[in-house]
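Re: FE2/S2 (inorganic) cluster structure - here you go.
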Amino acid sequence: MSCAFVILRSSGQRLECTADHPNLLTTLEAHNLCIEFQCREGYCGLCRTRLIKGEVHYTEKPLAFLQKGEILPCCCLVTEEIEIEL
Ligand code: FES
């Protein structure tokens, strides 16, 4: 994964996603941000959050139901600057 940044809407904080973060959830955890999660595999939908700007990618289509604008941090890859509702 190339270097990219995640902007948090609430605080304006800018987090760096580095090559050792396999997904967005790992990036959030690496910056001591806790969000709810359970399966970490795209099944349960608990980690669901809203994407405000940019796009994320999935290596496999997640099974959890997603509405337009929602993403699953546990299984999505960040390859460009994004902003999320957190
Ligand atoms: S933790 Fe289950 S879908 Fe993300």
